[in-house]
Amino acid sequence: MKMVPLGMNVPLFVSIVEDNRYFRSGWEAILRSDPEISLAGSYASCEEAFASPAIAESDLCLMDIGLPGMSGIEGVVRMKKEYPHVAVIICTVHDDDENIFKSLCAGAIGYLLKKTDPEDLVRALKEAAGGGSPMSPGIARRVIESFQTAAVGPAHEEDRLTDREVYVLQQMALGKSYPTIAGELSLSVEGVRYYIRSIYVKLQVHSRSEAIAQGFKDRLIRPPR
Questions:
Q1: Are 35 and 6 in contact (CB under 8 A)?
Q2: What angle do CA 100, 103, 108 make, to 5 degrees?
Q3: Across 10-23, average pLDDT
Q4: Structural domains in the chain, sorted by start
Q5: DSSP output for 105-166
Q6: pLDDT at 225
Q7: Are the beta carbons of 28 and 41 closer than 8 angstroms?
Q8: Average pLDDT of the chain to the nearest whole number
Q9: CA dist 141 to 97, 135, 213, Å?
Q10: pTM greater than 0.70 (yes/no)
Q11: What is the pLDDT of residue 7?
Protein backbone atom coordinates (compact mmCIF):
# COMPACT_ATOMS: atom_id res chain seq x y z
CA MET A 1 0.00 0.00 0.00
CA LYS A 2 1.30 3.44 -0.84
CA MET A 3 1.72 5.80 2.09
CA VAL A 4 -0.52 8.85 1.74
CA PRO A 5 0.70 11.97 3.58
CA LEU A 6 -2.23 13.69 5.26
CA GLY A 7 -3.14 17.19 4.16
CA MET A 8 -2.28 16.58 0.51
CA ASN A 9 -4.77 16.37 -2.34
CA VAL A 10 -4.03 12.70 -2.91
CA PRO A 11 -7.14 10.57 -2.41
CA LEU A 12 -6.98 7.47 -0.30
CA PHE A 13 -8.89 4.77 -2.19
CA VAL A 14 -10.95 2.64 0.19
CA SER A 15 -13.18 -0.36 -0.53
CA ILE A 16 -15.90 -1.69 1.76
CA VAL A 17 -16.95 -5.31 2.24
CA GLU A 18 -20.01 -5.47 4.51
CA ASP A 19 -23.20 -7.48 4.04
CA ASN A 20 -25.37 -5.32 6.32
CA ARG A 21 -26.67 -2.63 3.98
CA TYR A 22 -27.28 -0.16 6.81
CA PHE A 23 -23.69 -0.34 8.01
CA ARG A 24 -22.46 -0.34 4.41
CA SER A 25 -24.41 2.76 3.44
CA GLY A 26 -23.32 4.45 6.66
CA TRP A 27 -19.66 3.74 5.97
CA GLU A 28 -20.10 4.95 2.39
CA ALA A 29 -21.51 8.26 3.64
CA ILE A 30 -18.67 8.66 6.15
CA LEU A 31 -15.99 8.06 3.53
CA ARG A 32 -17.62 10.36 0.97
CA SER A 33 -17.73 13.16 3.55
CA ASP A 34 -13.93 13.40 3.65
CA PRO A 35 -12.17 15.04 0.67
CA GLU A 36 -9.00 13.02 1.27
CA ILE A 37 -10.81 9.69 0.85
CA SER A 38 -12.31 8.19 -2.30
CA LEU A 39 -14.72 5.23 -2.23
CA ALA A 40 -13.20 2.67 -4.60
CA GLY A 41 -16.00 0.12 -4.25
CA SER A 42 -18.64 -1.19 -1.89
CA TYR A 43 -19.59 -4.88 -1.76
CA ALA A 44 -21.91 -7.18 0.15
CA SER A 45 -19.52 -10.15 0.09
CA CYS A 46 -15.90 -11.12 -0.50
CA GLU A 47 -16.95 -12.99 -3.63
CA GLU A 48 -18.49 -9.82 -5.04
CA ALA A 49 -15.42 -7.79 -4.12
CA PHE A 50 -12.92 -10.17 -5.72
CA ALA A 51 -15.04 -10.32 -8.88
CA SER A 52 -14.64 -6.57 -9.29
CA PRO A 53 -11.52 -5.14 -10.97
CA ALA A 54 -11.90 -2.05 -8.76
CA ILE A 55 -10.64 -3.93 -5.70
CA ALA A 56 -7.13 -3.87 -7.19
CA GLU A 57 -7.25 -0.06 -7.24
CA SER A 58 -7.82 0.15 -3.49
CA ASP A 59 -5.28 1.24 -0.91
CA LEU A 60 -7.37 0.01 2.01
CA CYS A 61 -10.28 -2.35 2.49
CA LEU A 62 -12.69 -2.04 5.40
CA MET A 63 -14.02 -5.56 5.95
CA ASP A 64 -16.50 -7.29 8.24
CA ILE A 65 -15.86 -10.82 9.58
CA GLY A 66 -19.34 -12.36 9.51
CA LEU A 67 -20.02 -12.36 5.78
CA PRO A 68 -22.11 -14.71 3.64
CA GLY A 69 -19.97 -17.28 1.86
CA MET A 70 -16.30 -16.46 2.37
CA SER A 71 -15.67 -15.04 5.85
CA GLY A 72 -13.79 -11.81 6.41
CA ILE A 73 -10.83 -13.72 7.82
CA GLU A 74 -10.70 -15.89 4.69
CA GLY A 75 -11.04 -12.68 2.70
CA VAL A 76 -7.95 -11.23 4.40
CA VAL A 77 -5.93 -14.32 3.47
CA ARG A 78 -7.02 -14.11 -0.16
CA MET A 79 -6.43 -10.35 -0.29
CA LYS A 80 -2.87 -10.79 0.99
CA LYS A 81 -2.28 -13.43 -1.67
CA GLU A 82 -3.86 -11.72 -4.69
CA TYR A 83 -3.55 -8.02 -3.82
CA PRO A 84 -0.76 -7.65 -1.25
CA HIS A 85 -0.73 -3.87 -1.71
CA VAL A 86 -4.28 -3.60 -0.31
CA ALA A 87 -4.25 -3.28 3.48
CA VAL A 88 -7.28 -4.72 5.28
CA ILE A 89 -8.83 -3.28 8.41
CA ILE A 90 -11.39 -5.51 10.09
CA CYS A 91 -14.48 -3.68 11.38
CA THR A 92 -16.84 -5.99 13.23
CA VAL A 93 -19.04 -6.57 16.26
CA HIS A 94 -16.83 -9.48 17.37
CA ASP A 95 -14.45 -8.61 20.21
CA ASP A 96 -13.44 -12.13 21.30
CA ASP A 97 -9.82 -13.26 21.37
CA GLU A 98 -10.30 -15.95 18.73
CA ASN A 99 -11.56 -13.59 16.01
CA ILE A 100 -9.06 -10.88 16.93
CA PHE A 101 -6.04 -13.14 16.65
CA LYS A 102 -7.29 -15.07 13.64
CA SER A 103 -7.73 -11.76 11.83
CA LEU A 104 -4.34 -10.37 12.76
CA CYS A 105 -2.55 -13.63 12.02
CA ALA A 106 -4.30 -13.76 8.64
CA GLY A 107 -2.79 -10.38 7.77
CA ALA A 108 -5.23 -7.64 8.84
CA ILE A 109 -3.37 -4.45 9.78
CA GLY A 110 -6.10 -3.11 12.05
CA TYR A 111 -9.14 -4.20 14.06
CA LEU A 112 -12.04 -1.87 14.83
CA LEU A 113 -15.42 -2.42 16.43
CA LYS A 114 -18.54 -1.28 14.61
CA LYS A 115 -19.40 1.08 17.46
CA THR A 116 -16.41 3.21 16.41
CA ASP A 117 -17.43 6.85 15.93
CA PRO A 118 -17.34 8.23 12.35
CA GLU A 119 -14.53 10.63 13.20
CA ASP A 120 -12.48 7.82 14.74
CA LEU A 121 -13.15 5.60 11.72
CA VAL A 122 -11.79 8.22 9.32
CA ARG A 123 -8.84 8.83 11.64
CA ALA A 124 -8.12 5.09 11.72
CA LEU A 125 -8.11 4.85 7.92
CA LYS A 126 -5.67 7.74 7.66
CA GLU A 127 -3.52 6.26 10.41
CA ALA A 128 -3.35 3.00 8.43
CA ALA A 129 -2.47 4.93 5.28
CA GLY A 130 0.43 6.48 7.17
CA GLY A 131 1.78 3.09 8.19
CA GLY A 132 -0.08 2.59 11.46
CA SER A 133 -2.16 -0.31 12.77
CA PRO A 134 -5.38 1.18 14.17
CA MET A 135 -7.31 -0.73 16.80
CA SER A 136 -10.21 0.09 19.04
CA PRO A 137 -8.84 0.84 22.55
CA GLY A 138 -10.23 -2.31 24.15
CA ILE A 139 -8.86 -4.46 21.33
CA ALA A 140 -5.40 -2.90 21.58
CA ARG A 141 -5.28 -3.63 25.31
CA ARG A 142 -6.21 -7.27 24.77
CA VAL A 143 -3.51 -7.67 22.13
CA ILE A 144 -0.91 -6.15 24.46
CA GLU A 145 -2.03 -8.36 27.34
CA SER A 146 -1.76 -11.44 25.14
CA PHE A 147 1.83 -10.59 24.25
CA GLN A 148 2.66 -10.00 27.89
CA THR A 149 1.13 -13.34 28.82
CA ALA A 150 3.01 -15.10 26.04
CA ALA A 151 6.27 -13.43 27.09
CA VAL A 152 5.91 -14.60 30.68
CA GLY A 153 4.90 -18.10 29.62
CA PRO A 154 3.70 -20.88 31.92
CA ALA A 155 4.91 -20.61 35.50
CA HIS A 156 5.96 -24.25 35.61
CA GLU A 157 7.41 -26.60 33.04
CA GLU A 158 4.66 -29.12 33.74
CA ASP A 159 2.11 -26.54 32.53
CA ARG A 160 3.59 -26.46 29.01
CA LEU A 161 1.86 -28.44 26.28
CA THR A 162 3.84 -31.34 24.86
CA ASP A 163 4.47 -31.56 21.12
CA ARG A 164 1.74 -34.21 20.87
CA GLU A 165 -0.74 -32.01 22.75
CA VAL A 166 0.06 -29.05 20.49
CA TYR A 167 -0.55 -31.29 17.46
CA VAL A 168 -3.91 -32.41 18.85
CA LEU A 169 -4.90 -28.81 19.58
CA GLN A 170 -3.93 -27.75 16.05
CA GLN A 171 -6.07 -30.51 14.54
CA MET A 172 -8.97 -29.43 16.75
CA ALA A 173 -8.57 -25.89 15.39
CA LEU A 174 -8.78 -27.32 11.88
CA GLY A 175 -12.17 -28.77 12.79
CA LYS A 176 -11.13 -32.42 12.74
CA SER A 177 -13.16 -34.97 14.69
CA TYR A 178 -11.76 -37.06 17.53
CA PRO A 179 -11.84 -40.28 15.43
CA THR A 180 -9.94 -38.53 12.61
CA ILE A 181 -7.27 -37.27 15.00
CA ALA A 182 -7.08 -40.70 16.59
CA GLY A 183 -6.50 -42.30 13.18
CA GLU A 184 -3.71 -39.85 12.34
CA LEU A 185 -1.94 -40.58 15.63
CA SER A 186 -2.66 -44.32 15.69
CA LEU A 187 -4.53 -43.89 18.96
CA SER A 188 -7.92 -44.84 20.29
CA VAL A 189 -10.54 -42.13 20.59
CA GLU A 190 -10.17 -42.43 24.36
CA GLY A 191 -6.43 -41.79 23.93
CA VAL A 192 -7.24 -38.55 22.11
CA ARG A 193 -9.65 -37.62 24.89
CA TYR A 194 -6.83 -38.15 27.38
CA TYR A 195 -4.69 -35.60 25.55
CA ILE A 196 -7.60 -33.18 25.32
CA ARG A 197 -8.27 -33.40 29.05
CA SER A 198 -4.60 -32.64 29.68
CA ILE A 199 -4.79 -29.66 27.30
CA TYR A 200 -7.84 -28.30 29.14
CA VAL A 201 -6.09 -28.57 32.49
CA LYS A 202 -2.86 -26.92 31.30
CA LEU A 203 -4.63 -24.09 29.48
CA GLN A 204 -7.19 -23.71 32.29
CA VAL A 205 -10.16 -23.93 29.92
CA HIS A 206 -13.36 -25.96 29.88
CA SER A 207 -14.34 -26.39 26.24
CA ARG A 208 -12.99 -27.03 22.76
CA SER A 209 -13.63 -23.43 21.64
CA GLU A 210 -11.92 -22.01 24.72
CA ALA A 211 -8.91 -24.28 24.19
CA ILE A 212 -8.58 -23.22 20.55
CA ALA A 213 -8.94 -19.53 21.42
CA GLN A 214 -6.30 -19.86 24.16
CA GLY A 215 -4.03 -21.71 21.73
CA PHE A 216 -4.25 -18.80 19.28
CA LYS A 217 -3.74 -16.27 22.07
CA ASP A 218 -0.64 -18.06 23.40
CA ARG A 219 0.73 -18.54 19.85
CA LEU A 220 0.75 -22.29 20.33
CA ILE A 221 -1.12 -22.95 17.09
CA ARG A 222 -1.81 -21.18 13.80
CA PRO A 223 -5.24 -20.14 12.50
CA PRO A 224 -6.56 -22.27 9.60
CA ARG A 225 -5.57 -21.00 6.14
A1: no
A2: 120
A3: 93
A4: 12-147 (3.40.50.2300), 153-217 (1.10.10.10)
A5: HHT-SEEEETT--HHHHHHHHHHHHTT---B-HHHHHHHHHHHHHHHH--SSGGGSPPHHHH
A6: 64
A7: no
A8: 87
A9: 11, 9, 17
A10: no
A11: 46
